[in-house]
Prior knowledge:
With 808 residues, the protein is an alpha+beta fold. The chain contains 32 helices and 28 strands.
Amino acid sequence: MRPTRLVPLLLGILLVPVTRPTAAADPPLPPNDEQLLKAAGLAPTGPGLLELFRRRAQGPAEPARVAALVKQLADKDAGIRDRATAELIGVGPPAVPLLRQAANELDDADAAARARHCLLNIEGAGASLTAAAARALAVLKPAGAAEALLAYLPLADDDHALDEVTTTLVAVAVRDGKTDAALVAALDDPVPLRRAVAAEVIGQAGSDADRLAVRKLLRDAKPDVRRRAALVLAGHQDAEAIPALVTLLAELPADQTRAIEDYLAGLAGEWSVKAPAGNDAIARRLRRDLWAAWWSATEGPALLDEVRQRTPNDAERARIQALVAKLGDGAAAARDKAMADVLALGPAAAPYLRQAAAGADAKAADAARKCLAVVEHNAVPALPTAAVRLLALRRTPGAAEALLAYLPSAEDDTVALEVRTALATVGVRDGKAEPALAKALEDASPLRRAAAAEVLTPLADQRPAVRKLLADPDASVRQRAALALGGAKEKGAVPVLIALLTELPYAQAGQVEDTLRALADESAPDVLFGEDDASRKKCRGAWEAWWRANADKVDLARLDPRNLMLGYTVVVEQYGANGRTGRVLELDRRGKLRWQIEGLMSPCDAQVLPGDRVLVCEQGTNKVTERDFKGKVIWEKQAPNVVGAQRLANGNTFILSRHQLVEVDRTGREVFNYPRAGADIACGRKLRNGHIAFITQQGLCVRLDANGKELRTIRTPPLQYYGGYIDLLPNDHVVAAQYQASKVVEYDASGKAVWEASIAYPLSARRLPGGTTLVVGSNPHRVVEIDKAGKVVWESKEFAQAVRADRR
């Protein structure tokens, strides 16, 4: 933490009485922030908050002025007293000595009370007030906000206030479609902090042209300015940032280069450099030189060659896939014949055998693994994802065509997602679609058509061609085209998504229903999405009726694909560093803390709800509570031996205890109860079709219908950590953390292991939509995201005893 600055908050501000209503044109502020501002005597309006930051940028108040304000606390005029109170809160720590004297004054109880009020807001909420004011500006967005916040930056109270101001600058960076001139000018400001923050803000919110102006800071005299500019440019696939980051490895101490090395390691993936540790000058130079050699080695046509050598022509690919598909034939003789035919193909079949080995068809997966054991040792290894990322970063000529050609041969969802992400970078050049992408909208491969739709939808001249895919014969193409067009606020996409509820396979259709619920928010129909045709048709009908009633008022911005998965990681930490109480917290994509609720008694589960609420289970209090992000309890329900809870689409709450499963309505009244004699329930959830799935401590995975009737049970190894979490997948597979074995295992519906990855002492596991797995490990305590190969792609270690994690 940086030292607190002795700066004024409100010197000379013309205050409006806090009882004055906010102007009708002003959007509503977060209730907690508005309350905090008003309690301190601040008017939560754009002009008043701008003046606050302008005054704060002027420096500390004169001692004589502070003494005069303290004296005014006893003035007979209420207006003078109110203004003095607000200004003293704004003065902050320099006012504390005189306020303490006034607070102990016995002759005037009212003035003493006002002095204590000032002290409370200075010592208990000083930086919080600044942060609340910054968040309010992010909502109000008055003209001049960027200029005022930039002026204040060097005098920020602490890191928290600085982060909030930076976040607000991102929110106000663009006005009338242009980056605020104050931010662009700040790139040349004599104060390094302003240059660095301006670079970060423009990098996140500015146009491509404005980001080009950030490049000059890659040669800034201050290493930290170069570091922050390079990191933000690298995040936008700017290859010029990489040499700057590598050079900084020799200039900065190890604790300041962690973000650089994390970025480079993530970019390099399978090709990552093993650099020496240490903080001495030689170790730093060695790290720089090794990464510089790595960057140099990945230049030229080698990356394209890596892709092309794994890309058969379409006819050859179709022949191989047809033969591999026969490995799942119901007749053993047919499977044996298919295996012989596939083995005759030799190493060329390996990529498609790897796809089949990871598939849901148990017979095909088993046959594919047997074939792989014969052909894989001579096969070309799977495409390193680093090759795809580097093609995008370097914008290698021919990359779009090569990646499109390869896409149907991608061996798993992780590689396919990397290719689609790279296509978004290399598929558009100078605002124009690459010819290969435009042509791909009519390609015979559904995967290529869908990928092209996602990349080209933002281009207005390509959108008419993308719209044609809303009637594509392939349902998955219609799904991805509709999501892309919905994100571009095209209403015609929504009826297509609704129709897909009965046309896609159940798991994919469930993802569509999740999307529709994100779009509808609180207006979503109260209907279950079941696996049978009748319930799926009923669900589709309910959504069609909802669309007829809401088409003219729904906010299509919620369909923006960037909003559907925020990238925030929610972590439940059962015990903190003090060993007594726990917390629930959320980290952003960079691993920075967004919010936390502390002081919880053995929390074991949490679910983030709409409206900045969170559902929390505490074993120490035997309660399920709904709280705001500050920890204030909004709703609660007593739940002895609780192990988990889930807020359902209909507003009810499903509670899992060791001895029973209970569903309660908004009033807390039970509407369902399933007792469990063995008191061995470890975790579970209610599924979208009304069924219930839970797992016992002994490893029994039990499926119940909506009435509590047992439908089936499969057996997996027992949970080796009480309170651990097993994820139940839509295809009835389960992903289990095996603590003693130090691995995470996926079991199919028969209880057979179909995938595993090694990780030290895992406590819980959660499969994410992209196919990666979020794991909470212990010894060391950490939360990691691993890909299908078991490689760590994201990690956070800031925990004492995390037990569960999820991504939203």
